[in-house]
Write a sequence for this structure.
């Protein structure tokens, strides 16, 4: 694989400092973007080329561009955190790079070398470092690397041209309520992914497929939808954009990766962080019926969702067509909060990085 260098062509007109500071004071999620983006092209026969850091701008696309019709697209999400000494570090970017390669394979796209993925993220953060929020708060700089098929034509086939882009967005809490328990609708008739499908790839189609079920969850008064497996319709898989953890006293359990569940970087990190804190952690199967039974008999003490954007978010009320139960009261559980704090302490540089997860820019 070729590894292109990234040519710097910075903006002559970055946003004024006062306007940027006003955005950083209350960034929300995914609403504002930094001054630059990185783009790298891939062409059949030539490989990766023309890596550039350029001003953030719309990308012109022919109406017959392949991705607009057949959704050959993949993406990632990772965050850059301001460290106590003012420097900036990203969290496990190599893991996102490797998942990006797995997603590319699944969607018949070219694989970007891990070091090019990481260098593209580094170059953008380095250039737009003033956009990384201050140390210590909930805020960070969310990076969104993605790749689209750019061949023009309506033939259904792997494209012969692609564009990789990284953009960045200052991010506060993903859920407007902050670290408050969210309510879950367990969908019984809609599935997110099927065996042999692309549930373990991070591709826009999985998120498009989740929108109707998410709207149905909202109509039932719930914040998020939870999917069951597509065959037996009983095994808990994941939420629309987050993995799930079940807390049984001193043990945390997350659904085993079956091929239809996205392998979250936060999910994986928590298996280790939990052990560091003295909890047992494991992968296993949990059915919706078991969830209700164990919540009601008190053995299932907490449930939380996790992901890069949402970090760790506690689950409160759970509803399905035939039942409704309370997983927790209005406050997050003790284990949920401890794990959340331990993970954030590593990411913010206030705890020892004993796994070597932080990548200094
Ligand atoms: C993330 O947590 O980074 C995600 O990709 C979830 C969502 C914002 C799409």
């Amino acid at each position: 694989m070729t590894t292109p260098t990234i040519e710097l062509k910075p903006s002559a007109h970055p946003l004024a400092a006062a306007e940027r500071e006003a955005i950083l004071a209350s960034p929300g999620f995914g609403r504002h973007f930094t001054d630059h983006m990185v783009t790298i092209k891939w062409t059949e026969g030539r490989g990766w080329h023309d890596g550039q850091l350029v001003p953030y701008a719309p990308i012109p696309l022919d109406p017959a561009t392949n991705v607009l019709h057949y959704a050959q697209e993949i993406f990632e999400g990772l965050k850059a955190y301001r460290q106590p000494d003012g420097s900036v570090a990203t969290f496990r970017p190599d893991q996102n790079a490797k998942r990006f390669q797995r997603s590319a394979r699944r969607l018949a796209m070219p694989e970007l070398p891990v070091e090019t993925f990481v260098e593209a993220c580094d170059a953008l953060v380095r250039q737009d470092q003033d956009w990384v929020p201050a140390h210590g708060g909930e805020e960070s700089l969310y990076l969104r690397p993605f790749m689209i098929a750019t061949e023009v034509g309506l033939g259904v086939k792997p494209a012969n041209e692609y564009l990789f882009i990284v953009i960045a967005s200052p991010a506060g809490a993903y859920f407007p309520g902050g670290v408050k328990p969210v309510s879950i609708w367990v969908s019984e008739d809609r599935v997110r992914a099927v065996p042999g499908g692309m549930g373990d790839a991070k591709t826009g189609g999985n998120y498009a497929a989740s929108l109707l079920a998410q709207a149905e969850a909202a109509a039932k008064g719930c914040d998020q939808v939870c999917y069951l497996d597509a065959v037996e319709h009983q095994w808990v898989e994941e939420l629309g954009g987050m993995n799930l953890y079940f807390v049984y006293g001193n043990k945390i359990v997350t659904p085993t990766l079956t091929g239809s569940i996205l392998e979250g970087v936060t999910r994986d990190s928590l298996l280790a962080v939990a052990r560091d804190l003295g909890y047992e952690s494991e992968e296993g199967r949990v059915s919706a019926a078991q969830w209700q039974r164990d919540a009601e008999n008190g053995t299932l003490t907490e449930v939380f969702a996790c992901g890069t954007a949402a970090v760790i978010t506690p689950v409160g009320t759970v509803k399905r067509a035939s039942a409704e139960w309370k997983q927790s009261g209005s406050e997050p559980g003790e284990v949920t909060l401890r794990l959340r704090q331990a993970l954030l302490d590593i990411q913010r540089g206030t705890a020892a990085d004993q796994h070597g997860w932080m990548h200094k820019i």
Observations:
- The chain has two domains: 7-171, 182-348.
- Residues 77, 207, 241, 307-309 surround 2-OXO-4-methylpentanoic acid (CB under 6 Å).
